[in-house]
Amino acid sequence: MEHLTVNPFASLAYLVAGVCFILALRGLSSPATSQRGNRMGIIGMTIAVVTTLVTHVPTLDAGALDAVTIVEILAAIGIGAAIGIVTARKIAMTDMPQLVAAFHSLVGMAAVLVAAAAFLNPQAFGIAENGVIFVQSRIEMGLGIAIGAITFSGSVIAFLKLNGNMGGKPIMLPGRHVINLGVLAAILGLIAYFTQDQSPWIFWTVTILSFAIGFLLIIPIGGADMPVVVSMLNSYSGWAAAAMGFTLHNTAMIITGALVGSSGAILSYIMCKAMNRSFISVIAGGFGGDSAAASGEAKEQRPWKRGSAEDAAFLLGQAEQVIIVPGYGMAVSQAQHTLREMGDKLKAHGVRVKYAIHPVAGRMPGHMNVLLAEANVPYDDVFELEDINSEFAQTDIAFVIGANDVTNPAAKTDKTSPIYGMPVLDVEKAKTVLFIKRSMGGVGYAGVDNDVFYMDNTMMLLGDAKKMVEEIVKSLD
Ligand code: NAP
Fold first, then answer.
1. Of 221, 256, 287, which residue is a domain's last?
2. Any idea where the NADP transhydrogenase beta-like domain is (predicted)?
């Protein structure tokens, strides 16, 4: 806006912060550089916050430093940081998806509150003349509050579903597509009308409808698709922040919002592709349910072989090459440290040990990479699906630990399977498959049986992943 003086140092600082965020994203793309990436993010955020405080506190513009405002801001930062530190230290890796959902709800609510504050006091934000809000700002505000409110209520539902406070089953309202499209059209129509008429009722109706549509959009989506939804809401929260960045004339917020918005959208796309689901079908909802409900189904009785930890240790010790396939169960039982110990012992026995990571193993992208990195598994031993899949055929043992769907050959052969088309790890091609899970009844996320359990060359190791690996490690001595 022409009436706002732009501090050139602030613009420069925001640019530096933006570069830090880009470097942070780049660093986070590999476990080897992720800590550096995180540090870049912290530096960027510190630069952005300090610059905003120094240049955008209205009382500073007037020349006088309002001690009360500064104390309030510092107290808010202190409380937020304390909550963040305690949560980050306490959270279990398996609860990470719901934590991310909870954080997104806060971003959404922040966008709503900023938009509401700007609407109620536009003069202070420099977005109005004589009480008339600029048209451009009305569009930014309307979009900001709509996306923010959708992100908030959608993320709250995603949190409740992931945290088990609400069933994972899709809740299908009759005629929901018509209702959703109607509400979305009403929101867009009202934002368009808001550019002509800044009456409060329009603004607040957009807000209420947006809270409602966030709720309506997410309840029909089943637990299985929730991680995609979380990533999609992550993307929304980025766009909401970017819209508010325009309202607040804050370049750092625009850059950060656009980075979060686009990276979240790309991540959702990658997840959909790895699960062989179309983005539209995820949004339309109705896929997946409670795994407990799914496991209750009567299953075909087929013969299978059970082995003990000692049997497994004997076979592993004889192998030339072992490929370890971790999945959600490894995360649940926190078996990664013991697993690394097993890998080290096998290496000491002269066995070649590799880890195969499926892009959607676990419950969030990078889930397995993070856990293996936490357990100090060497990065050079960790391979992505496309780099290792051809090796199973020349491998003595595929050691599957708490993975299921990502090893299911039905994805390649059974057109009726819900996971048909999803790329899977070819564990069945290994000479022997050792398969750790707690019971034959338990199913993976997609709720389907796995032919690998019943193959001649498979030995089922039934029990908690961590306990089983601990026993194998003992037997390897
Ligand atoms: P999965 O198919 O969910 O299977 C998990 C396996 O772990 C089950 O066989 C379960 O059997 C076993 N298990 C659970 N707790 C265990 C414990 N304490 N000890 C030993 N075993 C345990 O897991 P996955 O192969 O990793 O596949 C991931 C699934 O999540 C895919 O369907 C994927 O599409 C979906 N998903 C992932 C993402 C992502 O971003 N990663 C996103 C969306 C969806 P028991 O109950 O018998 O033990």
1. 287
2. 11-474
User: Could you tell me if residue 32 is inside a domain?
Assistant: no
**How far does the centroid of ligand 1 lie from the alpha carbon of residue 460, in Å?**
16
Give pLDDT, residue 286. Answer: 58
Q: Are residues 268 and 368 in the same domain?
A: no
DSSP string, 288-331: ---HHHHHTS--------B--HHHHHHHHHH-SEEEEEE-HHHH
- What's the CA dihedral at 26, 31, 35, 39 to 10 degrees? 10
380 CB neighbour count, 10 Å cutoff: 8
The Å distance, Cα 157 to ligand 1 centre, comes to 22
381 and 273 co-located in one domain: no
How far is the C-alpha of 366 from the C-alpha of 343, rounded, in Å? 20
* Residue 313 shares a structural domain with residue 283: no
Instruction: List, in order, residues 6 or more apart from 223 with CB less than 8 Å away.
Output: 161, 162, 168, 169, 288, 289, 290, 291, 445
Q: How far apart are CA 449 and CA 460, in angstroms?
A: 14
267 & 313 share domain: no
- Active-site residue 426, yes or no? no
**Candidate from 232, 279, 290, 363 with most ligand 1 atoms within 8 A of CB, to mutate:** 363
DSSP 417: S
**Helix, strand, or coil here: 399?**
strand
Around ligand 1, the residues with Cβ closer than 6 Å are: 224, 227-228, 271, 275, 327-329, 332-333, 360-365, 367, 402-406, 436-439, 442, 444-446, 464-465
Which CATH number characterizes residue 382's domain? 3.40.50.1220
Conformation bin of residue 324: beta by default, left when phi > 0, alpha when psi is -120 to 50: beta
Q: Residue 414 falls within a domain, yes or no? A: yes
Supply the pLDDT for residue 57. 59
Q: Does 197 share its domain with 339?
A: no
Domain containing residue 405: 309-476
Q: What is this structure's pTM? A: 0.74
E-strand stretches of 115-243:
128-129, 132-133
Low-confidence ranges of the chain (pLDDT < 50): 1-3, 59, 62-64, 289-298
Q: What is the pLDDT of residue 300?
A: 60
Same-domain pairing of 355 and 425? yes
Distance CA 107, CA 44 (A): 18
Kindly state whether residues 209 and 339 are assigned to the same domain: no
Strand partners of residue 353 = 322
386 in a structural domain: yes
d(CA 355, CA 371): 12
Task: Report residue 336 as tokens.
Answer: 């990664």
The catalytic residue among 225, 405, 426, 449 is 405
- Report DSSP state, residue 220: T
Q: What angle do CA 138, 231, 52 make, to 5 degrees?
A: 50
Closest-CA residue, ligand 1 atom 43, reads 227
